[in-house]
Write a structure and sequence with these properties.
The complex is a heterodimer of chains A (about 190) and B (about 80). Chain A folds into two domains: about 100 residues, RNA polymerase sigma factor, region 2, helix turn helix motif (Rna Polymerase Sigma Factor, Chain: A); about 55 residues, Arc Repressor Mutant, subunit A, CATH 1.10.10. In chain A, about 70% of the residues lie in helices and about 0% in strands. Chain A is built from nine helices and no strands. In chain A, α1 crosses α2, α2 runs antiparallel to α6 and α7 crosses α9. Chain B is mainly alpha-helical and about 80 residues long. Classes of the chains: A mainly alpha (about 190), B mainly alpha (about 80). Chains A and B meet through α2, α3, α6, α7 and α9 of A and α1, α2, α3 and α6 of B.
Amino acid sequence: MTETVSAAQLVARCRNGDQEAWAGLVERFSRYVYAIATQGFRLREHDAEDVFQEVFAKVYERLDSLRSDEAIQPWIAQLTRRVCVDRLRAGSREETTDETELAADPDEDAIARIDEALDVHDAMAGLPENCREILDRFFARDETYRTIGDALELPAGTIASRISRCLVKLRDELEGRKPVPAQSGGQVSV
Amino acid sequence: MSAFNEDTLAELIGALPPAPEAWVRAAQELPVARSQFDGIVARAEADAEFRQALIADLEATLAQEGYEPERPLLDALRRRFADS
């Protein structure tokens, strides 16, 4: 994760045809879209992949219709929800099972947690590189102490204490950001 | 967010695992795919034989013409020629 510029700044650069900014924007929201599809709507991997590609294709096509660059996150969330629902409805027309009908109602608790998680991941951008790396590898990528130690050339026996120190830094980073500004500005155009 | 204890933070970091790398890469290549798309569609509109070849076997025709048949490009072309 290289989140040194804001999402709004990336959007502005994308509008000017900056392909590197586009790659950064995809990187920044890839986990978010993936999580909404797989956790919020519990899509199967194949469907989640289709949703993932369709969402970013729509973002790319419609970026100019976004009224405020700051509204990129709720806009992507709304697009993802819509594409997931369309996908499930299309699937239910083919399969006609109660299961797919039920799944069209997202797990709102899961989606709220995903929004919170994105805030935490954004805050991780303010940590030193080694902290970001170690926290992400351990908690998000499920890597073992040994794997992390090998990758980062650190003694495996020091990983637990480093994780603990990095969590404290992350908490301080989040505390420093309070109060968290509301991210949904109602300026969403899908 | 109400509390920043370590367990909550650990859980929230874990709530966003990375998307598969291939998916991310494909989405990042969209601008290139769109640029190729425009060229291919223009040629298909001018060259009926090329158009028929695309409809008959999209991936093979693209590969033969030197394009990387990546997913965003294939999806866009399939949608474009779906009614043909």
